[in-house]
Amino acid sequence: MHYDPIKKSLGDVFNRTPWLRRLFYHLLDLLLLRTWHVHRELRAWSKGRTQEQLTILDAGSGYGQYTYWLAGQSPKWEILAVDVKEEQVADSNRFFREIGRVNAQFAVQDLVLYQQPNTFDLALSVDVMEHILEDVEVFKNIHASLKDGGMLLISTPSDQGGSDVHSDGETSFIEEHVRDGYNIHEIQQKLRTAGFERIEAQYSYGEPGQISWRLSMKYPIQLLGASKWFFLLLPFYYLVTFPFCLLLNWLDASTKHESGTGLIVKAWK
């Protein structure tokens, strides 16, 4: 399935006014389980630091929803959000100017090449590394770009069914992925190779999260891929499924998992 064109279509619908884009961000925060896990880790990292002058890298910013959330936590934080898609970067800069979020800036950069030595207190990489073949090079660049004591936070699919791949004969639900998911030990070893010494990794998307993901993301995207007429039915679909997805997301984010289709990884320089 070509996931990016569907994401772009959804983005175009919600990008017509700043109010709609804000609504889009809030809906993503509620529906996307990875956001629940990422926000939990960001809250832990930021506790007691909202009055500090901190510099943050959103490495692979996509729609910009994580930059939006971070920029709203403290006006003293400066966020640089980078992505390879020029149109998306220009669009995000325009939106952030419109709403007055002056502590965030978007730029076109290739993470395989981008390095800004000893600059950032935090680097964020949410559902990015599964799209990049040269992952160790990216980890090395981020390690070099962090200040001493700086942290990298990663959300990415695991090899326990990430990208909805459960056996060797299956292909990824999202064709744009270059890998179906990371082995939890593999990604830690790659981070050590890049220079990180302290690393913590845990599974996300356990049983509750996998059900929620199918209801909130997989089935709607499959239907949108089959026919754009489903856009008209989408609000009614979520009216029924939304409460269940919220409960399942809360359960997943509140529970430790022995296995899961996602990984949350923290690494310190």
TrEMBL record:
Keywords: Membrane, Methyltransferase, Transferase, Transmembrane, Transmembrane helix. The chain crosses the membrane at residues 229-251. Residues 57-152 form the Methyltransferase type domain. GO terms for biological process: methylation. Pfam families: Methyltransf_12. One of its GO terms (molecular function) is methyltransferase activity. This is Class I SAM-dependent methyltransferase. It comes from Hymenobacter lapidiphilus.
